[in-house]
Amino acid sequence: MSAAAFDWATALPVVFLVLMGVAMLAYVVLDGYDLGVGLLLHRATPDQRDTMIASIGPFWDANETWLVLGVGILLIAFPKAHGLVLTALYLPVALMLVGLVLRGVAFDFRVKAQDQWKPLWNLAFWAGSGIAAVSQGWMLGRYITGFAEGSAAHLFAGVIALLLPAAYVLLGACWLVMKTEGALQLLAVRWAKWAWPPLVLGMGLVSLVTPVVSTTVRDRWFSMPEFIALLPIPLATLAALVLARVLLNSKMALGRLCWVPFVAVVSVFVFGAIGLAYSLFPYVVMDQLTVWQAASATSSLAVIAVGCAVTVPAIVGYTIFSYRVFSGKVRELSYA
Amino acid sequence: MDALVLARIQFAANITFHILFPTITIALGWALLFFRLRWLKTGDAGWLMAYRFWTKVFALSFALGVVSGIVMSFQFGTNWPGFMERVGNVAGPLLGYEVLTAFFLEATFLGIMLFGHGKVSERVHLLATGLVAFGTTMSAFWILALNSWMHTPAGVEVRGGEFFVTSWIEVVFNPSFPYRLVHMLLASGLTMAFLVAGVSAWQFLKGKANASSPQALRFGLTVGAVLIPLQILAGDMHGLNTLEHQPAKVAAMEGVWETQAGAPLLLFAVPDQTARTNHFALGIPQGASLILKHDPQAEIQGVNDFKDGHPPVAPVFWAFRIMVGTGVLMLVASWGGLWLLRRQGWSAAQLPRPVLAGLALMAFSGWTATVAGWYVTEVGRQPWIVQGLLRVDEVASAVPGAHIALTLALYLTVYAALLLAYVSVVKHMAEKPVPMPEGLPPRAAPATGAAA
User: Fold this and answer.
1) Which residues in chain B touch residue A90, judged by CB atoms under 8 angstroms apart?
2) Domain assignment present for A113
3) pLDDT per residue as tens digits for the range B257-285
4) CA dihedral of residues B117, B120, B121, B122 (deg, nearest 10)
5) What does the pLDDT look like over B364-375, one tens digit per residue?
6) In a domain, A1, yes or no
7) What are phi and psi of A304, to 5 degrees?
8) Is A241 a member of any domain?
9) How many folded domains does chain A comprise?
10) CB 3.0-4.6 Å disulfide test: which of A95, B74, B269, B350 passes with A135?
């Protein structure tokens, strides 16, 4: 063993913070597109609805599991933060859960129940997606400010509560551009174009307001030379947004490049997450609790780290396998 | 009502709703694999139709289990933040391994199992079905390891109020774990068996039977008849294990207030917590001593002896009788049903209507017994959250009671509606006519290998 000052008690909490961040990002991107599809459901004809839901049918369940992993790591690795965060977000968490319950069961009920109930389950699907997305946006907004009190902080959360659903709609619409063809694909392009301006406006607003609301964020971003070094993050975000928008205007988005808008919007989420991570680190709860203060015993973290090292690559592997099995344009789903 | 009671009701409501669905899917996953293999081996379209129908029930049950499970994963933190702060070093890794080894596996391969026909080979599809079944069983393994540890903690030391693990082998394979795991897996098998038999019996009763109904009915009855004696044996052993580690729970189960030699086996009684006695007691003299200690004169400790707290007697006492009573009904129904079926030359359509009606009535008997059994063990653990080491009131949330009451009302409304929808949709699917699979006479050779 070398005498290097490497210390598991310092490193493991950071490893888990990264893993938690990746799990949460995976959740937001993966469940984001299917919640977005759910939010668009009521704008489509009944046949198109079936196609839209078929495009997410094989995936939604595993998508939601990333939320369980993210919250699970918060619970397992940072129990003190878990208690604090979930107590502060008690009501929006409950609302989100009810939304996810409605959306999740509607998948199955809408095709299995008697015909007269199908519109009701479609409504549950749409409303559940909306309730979950708005609650998540509110929670994100509250979390960024470290659950700050005052009307400004709540207004900020309110803006994000509307922004995140818009982002999900854009992501969901681009998913449909990639997975569908014909009239539905054209419709999806229109939906994506609608969702684009509010998202860009909202993201710009949040980028301007966050440093005002939080001094920690301001100090992090607006000091030299950090400001220059960080510039690629907002620039890349902007580039991805512009790329998506330009492509949506061209015929290429309907053909071989149909996957590019989706990937571009996913990268917007990734850049956003990197920016957020930079703003927060090393806090798990902004200005209140650092990653080391919140962490479990090192021995317990080590036990889970071993499990993660083995299982997470396997999970990623069979997730990719599943997406390959159902790659290409969506076909009607049937059990056989 | 104070916030602690509300938090307990909310958690109990959620976990009760949740367990209904894994109880079905753990065993139904394996049953689907069996149906599929039978179809491939025999080419009997009845098995294929059974596979298709029960896949739908599986998908529906699975979805309900997933969404209520997500709620659970949050309620650990929202309702019992102190639990994770104190016991996180034990509970965290066990829950983590459940997510990592079970949740992702079952959720991902479920997509391929449900919708993968024609996209993957039959072999890969069978593998996906097997992995889903394996995932649900692994899930039970980890959850029951944690739950058993809360009843019979081992392999830990407590320093400054926080629990630290000294041996993971002792934590996972704690004294009550083997009994509890076997008891729960058998409960799942029985719940599935009676659901399959009951729904098939309902199809005959309503004149809606199809080619899958006879196979499914016989399958359900056979599995039930094989598992119920094993369950009675496992339950007895589990009870003796509980007597050793949680005697207060057993005292409440048997309704024994004062420590006594030759305690009776009460068949009926109304336990009275304030008067600390039973009313209208009817029992078999010395029966409890005989069953629990295999000696009619043996002494059974009464609840009054447990000075640092004991569970409320009436709910544990009643839930135990409901569980045992349902188990006895299951024994009668499966053995009687199978015997009658054999006398009819295995022709389910010939079964007398009252027999079919009885089986249909028992379609959800597994739920009754499972939930009653969980109430016995969980209410019987009170006032402890970790038996003998940590009390429930030490770990409760600081969330205002009004918030808990509001969300409780919300959850209860949603759950009641979903339960109603679930049962009525299963009934609707059972009654819906299904055409024979195209180009497949009942005994045609299956298209093996290539995707169907």
Assistant:
1) 78, 399, 403, 407
2) yes
3) 989 888 888 889 899 888 888 888 888 88
4) -40
5) 999 999 999 999
6) no
7) -75, -35
8) yes
9) 1
10) A95
